[in-house]
Amino acid sequence: MPEIPKDRLPRHIGIIMDGNGRWANNRGLAREHGHERGADAVRTTVRAARKIGVEALTLFAFSSQNWDRPPQEVFHLMALLRRYLVEERGEILDNNIRLVTVGQTHRLPEYVLEPMTDLMKASADNDGMILCLALSYGGREMITDAVRKLARAVAAGTLKPDDIDTRAIEAQLDSSRMLPPLDLLIRTSGEHRISNFFLWEAAYAELFFTEVLWPDFERANLIEALHDFAGRERRFGLTSNQLDDARADGPEEPEAP
Ligand code: IPE
Ligand code: IPE
Ligand code: MG
Description:
The chain is 45% helix and 14% strand.
């Protein structure tokens, strides 16, 4: 496949890593085996994205709703997360990757928070790529938190209700403070839904769905999504002619609203 020109690469990719349970089920294995193989796919994908030159990669690893899964599965996922953070520490630091998180991370157990906080601190100055883990994450929960903060500011008299616009809400979202705008959203496993991931952030993201189950996701699958993305015309509500005119006027594509 031909190289994708740098200016056709997404700056920020989000992935809903779905299908671990079905992968295991198809092989007569316990769901936990699927999650373990899913962690291998995480390693491969982070490495590939770093090499390709993506600025930021957000992996939806655990949703606010996933807490309601059977306790044994939740425990296994948390233990796996800890293992990932401990085992990948060296590779993340060696590759100049900065680790950040989004989500209600205070709900995570201490044995996850400890290596997570440590790696976030150790990698804070890295600028090769941002790896963002969405943990205990819910898009609705994040928007609700943002709105509550604005309501407090109104109650305190430091913000006027009329000054609440989309930028004011966005300014309260960790994602917008830490990450470039979401350009490409990938979901594996053939499901065509967002499942409470980046609800706000995905407003103008390009969506890419694949039947591949997450443990089977390889570098080639990522490249396929990138080629697909490179061929799309992002109009942000404008017409094709307007985009042509804007391109003729200067190198900048129109900003997302
Ligand atoms: C994704 O795989 C991992 C998490 C949600 C934590 P699933 O566990 O949802 O796998 P399926 O959808 O049941 O196959
Ligand atoms: C979304 O997958 C959450 C993650 C990938 C972490 P789910 O498997 O939880 O979503 P649904 O239940 O299919 O909507
Ligand atoms: Mg699932």
